[in-house]
């Protein structure tokens, strides 16, 4: 856990969640923008640091996935309070991201991969739709931009439903993959 990427993940999560909670309490759009910016820049930075420093770990990948949910949930709560008309598309997005995408993102643990970023080794199509750079941007960033810029909730809702359909289809496809789970050592008698 003690490495540069995990430190970045911890800091960006504490700062983004703190900013989002403060934005929520103070009804501050500026603080919400700062919270999202901190989350997105930090999420890019922790992944870049992990790859550049050779510090990618499975624990770090899980930490990043869980931290993303903490940042997203608090930022989304503030967004709904600031713009109640966004509740439906943001709610659909939250279900998709907090439940479906989390299950999908943690599925990498079934194989000897360091993170979902390496899922192309298992299935390139599923990787492309979920963890390629365009897919990552569409999953978290595009909807928020649409919600903020759209005069109506219908375009963001359609987008959120489309992303949800892609994630559900991807999750079903992952469950059908036949690659066996990696073998882990059997514990020695008397050890935990």
Task: Give the arrangement of secondary structure elements.
Blueprint lengths: L3 H23 L2 H24 L5 H25 L4 H20 L17 H7 L2 H17 L4 H23 L16
Helix pairs in contact: 1-2, 1-3, 2-3, 3-4, 4-6, 4-7, 6-7
| Mean residue pLDDT | 90
Q: Into how many domains do the coordinates divide?
A: 2
Portion in beta strands: under 5%
Helix content: over 70%
Decide which structural class fits the backbone. mainly alpha
Major beta sheet, specifics?
Answer: none
Quote the distance from N terminus to C terminus: 21 Å
The low-confidence parts are: 184-192
CA-atom Rg in angstroms = 18 Å
Shape: globular
In total, the number of strands is 0
Instruction: Write down the secondary-structure element order.
Output: HHHHHHH
Work out the helix count. 7
Family: Belongs to the CDP-alcohol phosphatidyltransferase class-I family.
GO molecular function: phosphotransferase activity, for other substituted phosphate groups
Transmembrane segments: 93-114, 126-148, 154-174
Signal peptide: 1-25
What would you note in describing this structure?
The protein is mainly α. It folds into 2 domains: 1-82, no CATH class; 85-178. The chain contains 7 helices and no strands. The protein is globular and about 45 Å long. It starts with a helix and ends in a 16-residue tail after the last helix. GO terms for molecular function: phosphotransferase activity, for other substituted phosphate groups. Keywords: Membrane, Signal, Transferase, Transmembrane, Transmembrane helix. The chain crosses the membrane at residues 93-114, 126-148, 154-174. InterPro entries: CDP-OH_P_trans (IPR000462), CDP-OH_PTrfase_TM_dom (IPR043130), CDP_ALCOHOL_P_TRANSF_CS (IPR048254).
């Amino acid at each position: 856990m003690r490495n540069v990427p995990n430190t970045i993940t911890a800091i960006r999560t504490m700062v983004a969640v703190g900013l989002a909670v403060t934005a929520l309490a103070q009804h501050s759009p500026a603080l919400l923008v700062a919270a999202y910016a901190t989350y997105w820049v930090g999420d890019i930075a922790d992944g870049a640091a992990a790859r550049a420093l050779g510090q990618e770990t499975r624990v770090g990948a899980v930490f990043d996935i869980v931290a993303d949910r903490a940042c997203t949930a608090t930022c989304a709560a503030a967004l709904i309070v600031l713009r109640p008309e966004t509740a439906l598309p943001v709610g659909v997005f939250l279900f998709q991201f907090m439940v479906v995408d989390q299950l999908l993102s943690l599925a990498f643990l079934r194989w000897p991969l360091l993170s979902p970023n390496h899922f192309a080794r298992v299935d390139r199509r599923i990787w492309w739709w979920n963890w390629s750079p365009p897919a990552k941007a569409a999953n978290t960033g595009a909807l928020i931009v649409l919600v903020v810029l759209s005069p109506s909730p219908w375009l963001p809702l359609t987008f959120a439903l489309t992303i949800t359909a892609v994630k559900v289809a991807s999750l079903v496809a992952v469950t059908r993959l036949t690659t066996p789970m990696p073998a882990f050592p059997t514990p020695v008698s008397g050890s935990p």
